[in-house]
Specification:
Layout (H helix, E strand, L loop, with lengths): L4 E6 L1 H8 L15 H6 L2 E9 L10 H18 L4 E3 L15 E8 L10 H6 L2 E5 L20 H13 L2 E2 L6 H10 L23 H9 L4 E3 L13 H15 L4 E3 L22 H10 L4 H19 L3
Parallel strand pairs: 1-2, 2-4, 3-4, 4-5, 5-6, 7-8
Helix pairs in contact: 9-10
This protein binds zinc ion (ZN).
Zinc ion (ZN) binds next to loops.
């Protein structure tokens, strides 16, 4: 079936800058993302990341690296104007259909490129609508996954800017303290763009049941990440993904779960569920959910409808 698919986390710029490959050609073996594969898969919208945590790119500042990634997206959108476009308003979402042009918004994964909270505005102008305040390692705003530090004073100021400008916090890489700090200081919508259920796979990158409920209570959603070590032990299949989805559904119902594949986000397809060769296979997840007994409208929400609802709230009218 031609599901409308929204993927809440794709590190397209990082992948293309690291490999130097042409996005217009099908992804080489082991890689999942390319324009032909996205189109074959019927992707309707993507949260395309700007990924530059401190220390990851040792020879550049996070800001210069983020500029390079935005420039790459600009070039890609210009070159493939008929297939890719930036989502600038909620009205633009009506163009997003399976098989239609693919809408792009940006998610900044790790806020290091924002040197001062006041700089957030210029990133919003360039399409950033979601910000993960820290990545795995601590930065000036918060401790990441591998640290217990919550939001710093600068982190609270950044969060105030985000709240004021309608930029949604992405909680995926935050530790428990920082997660709670964001909820305490930000009254609105939050998401976890790429995290699974810790109840099924205990891992610091996954979310506890209480965290999943907190995200649902804010009207947000949890994007299922397709990196095998976050899904289960040993061999991981589409059925493993279904079990995580079903767990989240059991906690918060069908409106707060989606996809956040993280494909090509530092891992190859040998670390994705068995049988996934490219992003085009995301549609097969929908077919599996259907076989497992989910109604069509529920599958449609999980594959794309829930992200569409979030984007409708996030984008300017
Ligand atoms: Zn990540």
């Amino acid at each position: 079936m031609g599901w409308l698919i929204v993927d809440g986390h794709e590190d397209i710029a990082t992948e293309l800058l690291e490999t130097g490959r042409d996005f217009a050609l099908p992804a080489p073996p082991g890689h999942a993302l390319s324009l032909p594969d996205l189109r074959r898969g019927g992707l309707a919208a993507i949260l395309a990341t700007i990924f530059s945590p401190d220390g990851y790119w040792k020879d550049e500042t996070g800001t210069a690296n983020a500029e390079r990634q935005i420039a790459l997206y600009d070039a890609l959108l210009e070159r493939h104007r008929e297939h890719l476009f930036r989502l600038e308003s909620a009205g633009d979402l009506s163009l997003c259909k399976a098989g239609g042009p693919i809408g792009i918004v940006h998610l900044m994964e790790g806020a290091d490129p924002i040197r001062h909270p006041q700089e957030l505005a210029r990133w919003v102008e360039r399409g950033v609508r979601f910000v993960g305040i820290a990545w795995n390692t601590p930065n000036r705003y918060a401790g990441g996954t591998r640290d217990d530090t919550g939001l710093t004073d600068a982190g609270r100021r950044l969060l105030e800017e985000m709240t004021a400008r309608g930029v949604v916090p992405d909680l995926s890489h935050l530790n428990a303290q920082a997660f709670d700090d964001v909820l305490a200081h930000h009254p609105g919508l939050v998401v976890a763009s790429h995290s699974n259920a810790a109840a099924l796979r205990p891992h610091r990158r996954n979310l506890t049941d209480a965290q999943i409920r907190a995200i649902g209570a804010r009207g947000g959603l949890v994007g299922m990440v397709l990196y095998a070590p976050f899904l289960g032990e040993g061999e991981v299949t589409f059925d493993t993904v279904f079990r995580h989805v079903d767990h989240v559904m059991g906690l918060v119902g069908p409106d707060h779960v989606g996809l956040g594949s993280d494909l090509d986000g530092g891992f190859r397809t040998d670390k994705a569920p068995r049988g996934l060769t490219t992003v085009a296979d995301l549609a097969r997840l929908g077919d599996l959910f259907h076989q497992r007994g989910y109604a069509d409208d529920v599958v449609a929400r999980i594959l794309g409808g829930n992200w569409m609802r979030v984007l409708r709230r996030v984008l300017p009218a």
